[in-house]
Amino acid sequence: MSTAPSSSIANSAAAPFDVERVREAFPILAERIHGKPLVYLDSAATSQKPQEVMDAMSRFLSKDNANVHRGVHYLSERATDAYEGARAKVQRFLNAKDVSEIVFVRGTTEAINLVAQTYGKTHVGTGDEVLITAMEHHSNIVPWQMLCEDKGARLRVAPITDGGELIPGELEKLIGPRTKIVAVTHVSNVLGTVNPIRQIIELAHAKGARVLIDGAQAAPHLEVDVQALGCDFYALSGHKMYGPTGIGVLYGKRDLLEEMPPYQGGGDMILSVSFDKTVYNTPPHRFEAGTPNMAGAVGLGAAIDFLGSLNHEALLAHEHDVLGYGIRALSRVPGLRLIGTARGKVSVLSFVLEDVHAHDVATILDREGIAVRAGHHCAQPLMSRLGLSATARASLACTSTRQEIDALVAGLGKVREVFR
Ligand SMILES: Cc1ncc(COP(=O)(O)O)c(C=O)c1O
Q1: With a threshold of 0.85, does the pTM exceed it?
Q2: Residue 267: closest CA among 294, 293, 290, 292
Q3: Which atom, in ligand 1's list, is nearest to the CA of 189?
Q4: How far apart are CA 385 and CA 377, in angstroms?
Q5: Nearest ligand 1 atom to alpha carbon 377
Q6: Pocket flag, ligand 1, residue 107 (CB < 6 Å)
Q7: Residue 262's pLDDT is what?
Q8: Which atom of ligand 1 is closest in space to residue 111's alpha carbon?
Q9: Model confidence pLDDT, tens digit, residues 170-181
Q10: How would you label 268-290 residue by residue, b for 16+ Cβ within 10 Å and e otherwise?
Q11: What pLDDT digit, counting tens, does each position of 110-124 carry?
């Protein structure tokens, strides 16, 4: 993470990851659920928030709140500084070349829809192709399907192995002269697979296609350098990376954003309006019609500071340790099958337990204070590919511990007792 450390829980470069100290920053982890200590294993759905994120939002609302960009009064300037300051933090976090390449949106879903409805609408025509993979979240399927339907274009899907990895060579074969956009998830929310996006970007660019990376599940765990990757667009959600809901980011290369038409019309996205003609603002404001989520942006900035305060290598090693421990422990649970066995995977443990429905697994675990997700995880085509209707999913964060995995395994013992 490129942001300078600012948190009181900063781990020094040499220090091992002090997970207990990190956990203290998250007040919700002290909650008891059904009388048991909370074991929160649902960060892939939404992460919990450190106190400093809540404090930053509360400080903004109690001291700086006013509408941004439009006022000349003092508070409006302060609010604008806070909002634009958050944009600069995102720029550093992603190592974008220019702050104007950072568009604030509601989240990954809106970022992808924005690209489909602007870049897509102006560059994809009849007979063209958009390429995705079999492991995409609905947010990286449906916007492209809508675009393809609208334009008479074709949606193509790169296949995956039973273990949940892209099949080498197959994606490349599907990038042809009609491929205009390749849209791929960086990390799968169901499998934890980390896709080789750098190679995919190179392959796509060699054939003249643009690349959007869905970074919703990557941003909380991996270092993302959009310049080194060379991607054209990168989408992320604040709420999955310790920030608030309702705020996310679309990174887009400056020259692409400049040629893209607006997504929505309204205040702030214009330079001048008359009944005859409207002149649009420059990026990123062209894509931020209306009053933005100012407190949300400030909260996201604080989440980036929080991530920057952690020793990233130690954080990765810690999450890797807990994931490996989880894989080994779950593999020993009789009747349990792990779904998603890609090498180098991160943060997600999806599984099925004999013929017990995933919702029953999650309901019984909930009685033990353990929060996991169950269902199709907004990836129904992936479920079909794997021949499943649902999985249970435990997902990890910087706060996860081996003890939480032990609690999960004990909880699964209860599930097995009930269904014996
Ligand atoms: C891989 C992936 N992409 C996109 C999304 C959509 O994110 P949001 O609902 O924050 O827009 C999610 C959410 O779970 C996800 O896991």
Answers
A1: yes
A2: 290
A3: 16
A4: 14
A5: 14
A6: yes
A7: 97
A8: 11
A9: 999 999 999 999
A10: bbbeeeeeeeeebbebbbbbbbe
A11: 999 999 999 999 999
Residue with CA nearest ligand 1 atom 12: 216
Does residue 179's CB lie within 6 angstroms of at least one atom of ligand 1? no
Tell me how far CA of residue 402 lies from CA of 26, 123, 148, 309, in angstroms.
18, 48, 45, 22
Instruction: Note the pLDDT tens digit of each residue in 50-59.
Output: 999 999 999 9
Tell me, what's the pLDDT at 13? 47
Of 397, 307, 342, nearest in space to 89 by CA: 307
Strand 270-273 and strand 278-280: the pairing is antiparallel
- If one residue of 185, 217, 249, 376 were mutated to test the ligand 1 pocket, choosing by the most ligand atoms within 8 A of its CB, it would be 217
Would the CB of 137 count as within 6 Å of ligand 1?
Answer: yes
The Cα–Cα gap between 96 and 92 comes to 7
CA distance 168 to 181: 19
Q: Establish whether 148 is a catalytic residue.
A: no
* Strand ranges of the sheet holding 233-237, from the earlier edge strand across to the other edge: 102-105, 248-252, 233-237, 210-214, 179-185, 129-133, 154-158
Ligand 1 mean position, distance from CA 132 (Å):
15
Residues of the chain where predicted confidence (pLDDT) is lower than 50: 1-8, 10-14
pLDDT score, position 168: 87
Q: Is 185 in the pocket of ligand 1 (CB under 6 A)?
A: yes
According to DSSP, residue 400 is labeled -
Q: Check if 109 has its Cβ closer than 6 Å to any atom of ligand 1.
A: yes
| Torsion sign (Cα): 181, 100, 228, 297 | negative
